[in-house]
Amino acid sequence: MIAKETSMKIDVSQDSFPLKSAFRISRGSKTTADVVTVKLTRNGVQGWGECVPYARYGETAESVNEQLQSVPPHITRAELIETLPAGAARNALDCAIWDLKAKETNSRVWQLAKLPKPQPVQTAFTLSLDTVENMTRAAAQNAHRPILKLKVGTPDDLNRLVAVRNAAPNAKLVIDANEGWTIDDYHMLINHLMDLNIALIEQPFPAGQDACLTDLDRPIPICADESVHNSADLPALLGKYDCVNIKLDKSGGLTAAIDLKAKSQAMGFGIMVGCMVGTSLAMAPAQLLASDATLVDLDGPLLLAKDRVIPISYDARGMHPAPAELWG
């Protein structure tokens, strides 16, 4: 006789991790990474997941917790896709279910998901929006890194970009306006960006106000971030964007992100794998998508003053695969 499988117990906590310094984008700043942690327990085995509620998408820790508390304890990943909308709450629970299954079967998630075995990957390191002087100093301190990502989206962007390029002449530079530009900004900056050898521009215009990209020359690839959450958004991006930024907190978990990546590649989009400002627990599942990505931006732990007890390792070789004790 086969024993009936015990339902999962879902525990939710709100956790805060201090940053090394204030992190600023065009919409605001933060000094802590405020995350929601999900722990699943079944037959003594625990699975973990993390999400970052994002105010830009109408999320709070309280709303995420409310969604998680509404989920029945026997839910599967397939049922979860139909039960919760794409977003932070579904991400944390989906990743925790993956982790739980891996531990129950003594497997790794990449094996269960039939994904390539993760290898060290180079990740961008983000310089948050600041004064020209402070961004110059930060660029000089991180000029040894192969990829720097600059937060922009103000009238003084060009001065910042020139200063950073001079301070880090050998780094690959990508920029993220976080919806902060107008068409006039784009026209004013684009030739300068080419001169500065900017490799990628992320979400220059507000989501829903990006139709102008269809008629703009794009000598530098444009990446969708706020304009893409899951695969249903892809058709509207054709002709406007060259690549998409896949974040598990937007797609609603690894399950949906795998689907988004496959469909994006089939439609000809390049892949950027990104993150919110979170801990190693949030980076671990995202890294499973990074093997053939155009750009990896999973630097959340590098911005923290304190990470999870068992963190992901970063060194000259890049971001290393997560230890099984952390996730997956």
Helix residue percentage:
25-40%
**Overall tally of domains:** 2
Radius of gyration, taken over Cα atoms and rounded to an integer in Å: 20 Å
Q: Give the CATH architecture of the largest domain.
A: Alpha-Beta Barrel
Q: Looking at CATH, which topology of the largest domain would you report? A: TIM Barrel
- What is the CATH superfamily of the largest domain? Enolase-like C-terminal domain
- Tertiary shape: globular
Q: What are the low-pLDDT stretches, counting only 5+ consecutive residues below 50?
A: none
Average of the residue pLDDT scores: 93
N-to-C order of helices and strands: EEEHHHHEHEHEHEEEHHEHEEE
**Secondary structure category:** alpha/beta
Quaternary organisation: single chain
What fraction strand? 15-25%
**End-to-end C-alpha gap:** 30 Å
CATH class of the largest domain: Alpha Beta
Q: How many DSSP-defined strands?
A: 13
Biggest sheet descriptor: 8 strands, parallel
- Continuous helix count: 10
Characterization of the model:
It is a single chain. By secondary structure, this protein is of the alpha/beta class. The protein folds into two domains: 9-106, Enolase-like, N-terminal domain (Enolase-like, domain 1, 2-Layer Sandwich), CATH 3.30.390; 125-319, Alpha-Beta Barrel (TIM Barrel), CATH 3.20.20. The chain has ten helices and 13 strands. The protein has helices spanning 61-69, 77-83, 88-104, 109-112, 132-141, 157-167, 183-195, 248-251, 254-266, 280-287, and strands at 9-25, 28-42, 45-51, 125-127, 147-151, 172-176, 198-202, 222-224, 243-246, 270-273, 295-296, 314-315, 318-319. The strands form three sheets. The chain has an eight-stranded parallel β-sheet. A three-stranded antiparallel β-sheet has the order 1-2-3. It has a two-stranded antiparallel sheet with strand order 12-13. Helix 1 (61-69) crosses helix 3 (88-104). It starts with 8 loop residues before the first strand and ends in a 9-residue tail after the last strand. 46% of the residues are buried.
